[in-house]
Amino acid sequence: MNVVWPVTALYMGPLAICAYRTMGDTGKTAGSRPFWQKTFVGTTHCGSGCTLGDIIAEFWVFYGGLAFFGASAVGVFGTYLVMSYALAYVLGIAFQYFNIAPMRGVWGMPSLWAAIKADTLSLTAFEVGLFGWMALMHFVIFQPRLEPNQAAYWFMLQIGMCIGFLTSYPMNWWLVKVGIKEAM
Q1: Neighbours of 170 (CB within 10 A)
Q2: What is the pTM of this model?
Q3: Residue 154 in domain
Q4: Distance between CA atoms of 150 and 147, rounded to whole angstroms?
């Protein structure tokens, strides 16, 4: 969580500070928090992997000139569906793994499998909200389209991450409720 709260502040801004003061380092155990707070904290965990993956992918693709199959990957498919999702997935699983393994005292495949089960659906729900917003921004709202070398692009990405949080929250609620994901 030492990384999760600062990353959450990247896209939620002042709301993340309020959330941290309410749900962060309060000394409360997960059991003493209301369920909505447990879900909120779990969703920030998922959102951090997505956020870092998406930011790294944007820089890597746009500024690094990364290409797939000889064609520029700056397009929506290359950036979002391949690079952003893949990096977000790997980072999200890593965040979950390094939360689950020490909590359970079990390292290796059992904790990795638990991390995959805990984060696959929530991370996908986050990315659906983010990608939906970014597609709307890319194809409908801005003509000419915004590019990653413009401040407005990053602000729109920030809004998309907030939307991703909102689309991921119900999935995290369900995952915690049925015991697939640990209460945080």
Answers
A1: 13
A2: 0.86
A3: yes
A4: 6
